Amino acid sequence: MTWLTEWACYLPQLMSGLGVSLLIAGISIFFGYPLGLVLSLMVTAKNLAVRTLGLAVVEIGRGAPALVILYLFYYGLPKFGIAFESITAACLALTWNSAAYSSEIMRAGLQSVARGQLEASNALGLSQRDTFFRVVMPQGMRSAIPGLMGVAIQMFQGTSLAYGIAVPELMKTAYNIGSQDFNYLQIFTLAGLCYAVISMPATWITVFFEKRMARHT
Amino acid sequence: MTIMLTLSAFSIGIVGAVPLAVGLSSSNILVRLASRLFVDLVRGVPIIVWLFLLKFGIQIGTFKFNPVGAAIVGLGVVSIAYLAEIYRGGLQSVPRGQGEAAHALGLTGGTTFYGVMVPQAFRIVSPSIATYLTGLLKDSSIASTIIVTEMVFQSQAFARQHPTVEGILPYIMVGILYIALSLPVAYLSRRLDSRMRKAVSV
User: Fold this and answer.
1) DSSP conformational letter for A112
2) Inter-CA distances, B76 with A95, A138, B47, B111, Å
3) Hey, is the C-beta of B141 within 8 angstroms of any chain A C-beta?
């Protein structure tokens, strides 16, 4: 019972942290998806320079831990006179991360479009633009949806790493409250529940979509 | 330290996930629901929260986790949940007829499971396990937040001592090191996969 009453008075403070977490996650997804699409096109481009650049951006974004990229933006770049506020640095780093992950999923989705579709639109005399935007993309993106939802959940959880660069998000708020009265167990359990309450149903919805789409194709 | 952390947590995960995967595909609905809840709960909470919970939250009498212990246990438990989900997918993808055939041949439940189902499932999931291992390698960087002296922690210490332009170097080097470390895992997994494929086709 005491846990519940204490949780009740922590909750308002945590909610403002959760708001910051959701904001960062939202921004990194909002910019990450379109950037991911551009990257996936770069990686499959014919031009070697474009392809190499795209591959480098994707591989670093996926291969290096998100925490390292966060530190690079927040602690590293200021040494060159490029300084960000912690929230901006978190948004930039996580956007890179989400763009890299979503580009791989989109590339797989776009490549899964049957070859005959391309040949058919070519035979019908559609321009390359129309082929891409009206034939390939609608079909490819459809199969990429569950994967992209997975990236969104991953990004929401990834915002907890912004704790490392002192962004006042959910984790940092929890830590601050905890260090005031040393109720670490209660406060981190509550913070964990906040994350779980959002990501668990989101995962279930993703699985539901996945199953539904598997049925249709 | 990074490699030690990753391998310890991975060993915990790869063993601990077996009973959980069995629970996930159990025919008893209570066992299945309990395992499902555990897996989803562990996966629904970010790793950093688990680490802080273990490091700062747990205090039983005089016992407290030291940073490395908390990191290994935390990453281990998370690995158990993720790997159990991967195993379950593998077990499910083994055709039903295999189990029925084993039963018809009069094999015991244990032999059916370990002699028939597991080898086939393992072949299917080995690439996913390798992918998870490279993910775990990257996630071990989170242990730096609870003062485990692994790669990221060391690079931060270096950057603090060198507040000039060269202070950016450790972050870049560490980033490249992570990518470089995940390459041999990807290579070995591809070798293992192609060898097992050959073994099947013979």
Assistant:
1) T
2) 28, 40, 11, 28
3) yes
B59 touches chain A (CB under 8 A): yes
For residue B98, the model assigns a pLDDT of 87
Contact A188, A21 (CB under 8 A): no
Q: Are the Cβ atoms of A79 and B45 closer than 8 angstroms?
A: no
Residues of A in contact with B52 (CB under 8 A): 171, 174-175, 184, 188
Report the pLDDT averaged over residues B28-54.
90
Would the CB atoms of A161 and B48 count as touching at under 8 Å?
yes
Inter-chain CB pairs, A–B, below 8 Å: 121
Residues in chain A within 8 Å Cβ distance of B58: 185
Give the phi and the psi of residue A48 in degrees, each rounded to 5: -65, -45
Task: Name the pTM for this structure.
Answer: 0.83
Q: Which residue matches tokens 């959980």?
A: B20
pLDDT value for B97:
86
- Sequence letter at residue B146: I
Written as six digits, the tokens of A139 are: 């079909």
User: Does the beta-carbon distance from B44 to A199 stay under 8 Å?
Assistant: yes
Distance CA B198, CA A181 (A): 61
Mean pLDDT in residue range A192-216? 87
Q: Give the residue numbers spanning the domain of B153.
A: 2-201
Q: Which chain A residues are within 8 Å of B139, Cβ to Cβ?
A: 65
| Chain centre to alpha carbon of residue A48 | 28
CB nearest to B175's CB, from A64, A80, A178? A64
Dump pLDDT digits (tens) for A32-58.
Answer: 999 999 999 998 888 999 999 999 999
Domains plus CATH for chain A?
2-216 (1.10.3720.10)
